[in-house]
């Protein structure tokens, strides 16, 4: 058997008050994350200046807020968030999102946060 290439790595785990993020890609031109959101928890109401992201709801059920409108997202649906879009996800049951985005992972402007983060 051939030796494992150096390119094989473990993802970065980022604990959050609402669950956790699993960063499996953070490259110069793209990023990939898994967001695990616990039932009853919500991400901050936020927007991005540069980051664009597409989210795929792999499992669970989410109340999604986008630019003043609230709607339900069900397993198997996806949504693209563009710079300037005000958004938040609230898990109605344990939920898992797959996220692909541009690489600006620190581009988060929190407008409201139930966990006291700024």
Characterization of this structure:
The protein has 118 residues and is mostly beta strands. The protein has one domain: Jelly Rolls. 0% of the residues lie in helices and 53% in strands. The protein has no helices and eleven strands. The strands form three sheets. Strands 1-2-3-10-5-8 form a six-stranded antiparallel sheet, with no helix packed on it. A three-stranded antiparallel sheet has the order 7-6-9, with no helix packed on it. Strands 4-11 form a two-stranded antiparallel ribbon. A hairpin with a 4-residue loop joins strand 2 and strand 3 (31-37). The mean pLDDT is 96.
Strand order of the largest sheet: 1-2-3-10-5-8
Q: Structural class given helices, strands, pairing?
A: mainly beta
Helix and strand sequence: EEEEEEEEEEE
The fraction of residues in strands falls at over 45%
Main sheet record? 6 strands, antiparallel
Number of separate strands:
11
What count of domains describes the coordinates?
1
- CATH topology (fold) name: Jelly Rolls
CATH fourth-tier homologous superfamily: Jelly Rolls
- Shape by Cα distribution: globular
| Oligomeric nature of the chains | single chain
Q: C-alpha Rg, in Å?
A: 15 Å
Question: Given this structure, which CATH class is correct?
Answer: Mainly Beta
Kindly report the average pLDDT value: 96
Q: Could you give the distance between the termini? A: 50 Å
Helix residue percentage? under 10%
Proper CATH architecture: Sandwich
Poorly predicted ranges (pLDDT <50, ≥5 residues)?
Answer: none
Count of helical stretches: 0
